[in-house]
Amino acid sequence: MSLLYIVVLLVLLFAGIPVATSLLIVGIGGIVIAGVPLSILGQRIAFGIDSFTLIAIPMFLLMGNLMNASGVTQRIFDFSVAMVGHWRAGLAQVNIIGSLIFSGMSGSALADAAGLGTVEIRAMTLKGYSPAFAAAITAASATIGPVIPPSTVAVLYAFIADVSIGRMFLAGVVPGLLMTFVLMAIVHYRGKKLNLPEFPRASWPERRRATWKALPALVVPVGLIGGMRTGIFTATEVAAVGALYALLLAAVYWKTTDRKEMLGAFRETALSTGGIMVIVASANVFAWILARERIPQDVAESVIAMGLSPIVLLLLLNVVILLLGMILDASAILILVTPVIVPALAAVGIDPVHFGMVMIVNMMIGMIHPPVGMALFIVSNIAKAPVMQVALETVPYIVGFLIILLLITLVPQLVLWLPDLVYGPAIP
What we know:
This protein is mainly alpha-helical. It has one domain. It is built from 23 helices and no strands. It has helices at residues 2-14, 19-34, 39-48, 56-69, 72-84, 90-106, 109-114, 116-126, 131-142, 152-161, 165-171, 173-194, 204-229, 235-253, 259-292, 295-306, 310-325, 330-347, 352-366, 374-383, 387-393, 395-410, 413-423. The longest helix is centred in the middle third of the chain and has 34 residues, at 259-292. It is globular and about 70 Å long.
């Protein structure tokens, strides 16, 4: 009976019913079956979003939206062109570097693909790149956003798994840089093979001007991580400071954002936050049912009884999450997998921060492969290219990311080295 709840949830999700609605249906069904008063529903929904930690999500979203509205994407693009535009397949390399920088502000793959991607795809197609190629590298580079801190996905995982947001943020630095280097290597190789165009080398005065214009945006990731590392701010406070900084840049320093764009940034933040919070609140009802039925404990006992090594267990989970990523979005996977499997992993000695980053990288691969691949649909719409053509162009990048996924799965210290260095080893 216990596992029936999970089966029903999967059926509802596969049927295309929204995540929050599916969670509520299963949760209400569980409450009725258990004979518990329905008043518990309102309590669990309210309790689910009564968390200081969750304030970081709308703040990071607002920071990214304000940066987008203020024209920072063009400044980052110009800076990247000045630095690496003269490399082989220069604009594709610019695309990757731009996403790496922008990821330190938005924390969202879709914000990167829709915001910076619009500038990048237009510039690449005008320079002679095929629309499908431009869209594919934009989608692939956008997946760096939720891995490199700050990351709204990492905040949500930290909340569900009850781990440190700071540790989760730092855990993404090395995997994010590995993803960047792999993309750059693939683009360099394909640039030679396809004879892709490049920009003329920028002069040093041009580089200085581009750096100066982009500097207020470039210091954001350093300031955010530095603020947490020195203990000046908590992760949630850092998000609020980042949002305030973005607001000051847009309204006071650059003065390029009109009232309509400013209101649009707040409106987009409110809509995105509302969607996330509805899912989180509904997930708390589902998590209560899981806890009442002792599903996490049963899964943990079953895993221990199987006698699998931590590495084998992680490899099996990677396969499961990859399959789920073909049909579900990241939030659904997080809510479905995290509360059930994290207690089992902790029981066999797997660090939940390590698993969290493995899961995030895995889910980002799902962002760029069909049939769900939300980033694919966004960039194909921007580039006016068929989705399947874009999907085929992403294959080399998916292969590269799968190698990284295997690497961080087999070598946990690639993920845990920096958090352990900054915060000290986690206490088991």
